Input
Amino acid sequence: MTAILWLRRDLRLDDNPALQAALATGAAVLPVYIHAPDEESPWEPGGASRWWLHASLRSLDAALRERGSRLHIARGDSLNVLKQLAAETGATQVHWSRLYDPSTRERDTRIKQALRAAGLRCESHGSALLFEPWEISTAEHQPYRVFSAFWRACVKALTEPRPVAAPDRLPPPPEIDGGVSLDALGLLPRIPWDDGLKATWNPGEFSARERTEEFLDGQVADYSELRDQPGIPGTSRLAPHLHFGEISPRRILSMVIERFGDPTAKPVEAFVREVGWREFGYHLLYHFPQTPTEPLNRQFADFPWASAEVEAQLRAWQRGQTGIPMVDAGMRELWHSGWMHNRVRMVVASFLTKNLLIPWQDGARWFWDTLVDADLASNTLGWQWTAGCGADAAPYFRVFNPVRQGERFDPDGRYVRRWCPELRELPDKYLHQPWAAPETLLRSAGVKLGESYPAPMVDLGKSRARALAAYEQVKG
Ligand SMILES: Cc1cc2nc3c(=O)[nH]c(=O)nc-3n(C[C@H](O)[C@H](O)[C@H](O)COP(=O)(O)OP(=O)(O)OC[C@H]3O[C@@H](n4cnc5c(N)ncnc54)[C@H](O)[C@@H]3O)c2cc1C
Output
């Protein structure tokens, strides 16, 4: 007898209910990863995510082998592969962890029905969230649209999780033919642009756990104070590990409780609340599945986005060549490392959607391709929030001023100097607005606007006024 464990974005052995359920059958367990063709989702992982996935699968296979098992990797239509594997091994059960993006949900429902019709027992398990998206609702049984109320309801419902540790040994998987090597999936870039990713990240369950311990034993104490300063490593950097399910939020919560008792007490409350924003993103994606491409607030469907020079401006933004230091620093950090600090994500997203009037969907797509933590729920939430058209959104008239944001959150210029080294010699006073510096000062700092560093592509004041005028048209 065999149970198939279909691993997708739960690339871990710790606190993995699908693995536990497969083991509980007492059968041989076949851990499988299926690389499905593009047609199964319009949200195929982008380049940075694929890089991460490759390393994470390698690490998972190593962890399985240490315990007497291994990862079977296959390529093709998910349903066909599962059916073939079941036929070949005589498997009677398939277990997997639930995913919530609309196209994957549809596919999984179809697969579940087909496998059940073929006589297999099929079970999906909750594993990626503290609460399933349907478990939290308003008194009127409606989904929440406001984070504070949503999170209050979550906190009230929180119980201490009891995550099950990774087993020491696993039953050997059945011998089967076929499958492909990890390299054959072609997840790594053909032209090697990934040096920055390699230097920055260490994917896999082991480092996810290590990072969590390090963060909870150190930085978390200053998290609420330092989390907004991009020049300081003050946040957990757990987002890509969470996205790929290398650690579960339940495990994180239990580690928090182990150390601090109450997860809503200082100094961890602010950090746990951010994990709550992730839950909120999934709650919204589940209940409003159209939102990766359409504004939650329907008023914004007819927003008068810019039509001139959009391609060129989008390219300059993507490449960190807007002439606005805080924006360029963020976009260059993203390109180099596959990550951008949250404060700066808001600044660059506001600049794109408001100062340039370029649709948030274009920005979200670029993030999707370049972020190692690209996540349909959190990315959609972040972009719609900043653009002002989502749940609990920043009001549209709130246009982040990248100069003020820089002065406030990067006061010593550490962040901008790191990513825009051509501005390094400018004094702090002008670092966030080089165009305001006297010519002699620019010259002595070796800065020539339009040559060594771009002149600002828009006037911040005028473009803000244009954005507010556009908003007046949809305000109703
Ligand atoms: C425009 C925009 C796009 C974004 N796109 C993504 C994305 O694709 N994937 C992604 O994981 N996050 C996204 N975020 C949210 C946030 O920026 C990142 O989760 C955070 O920067 C990750 O860094 P960290 O792990 O050090 O976070 P920490 O500050 O240490 O927070 C801990 C965890 O909480 C979660 N979290 C924190 N802030 C948020 C938030 N605002 N929304 C949802 N979850 C949050 C993450 O899982 C994070 O790992 C986006 C935000 C914006 C404004």
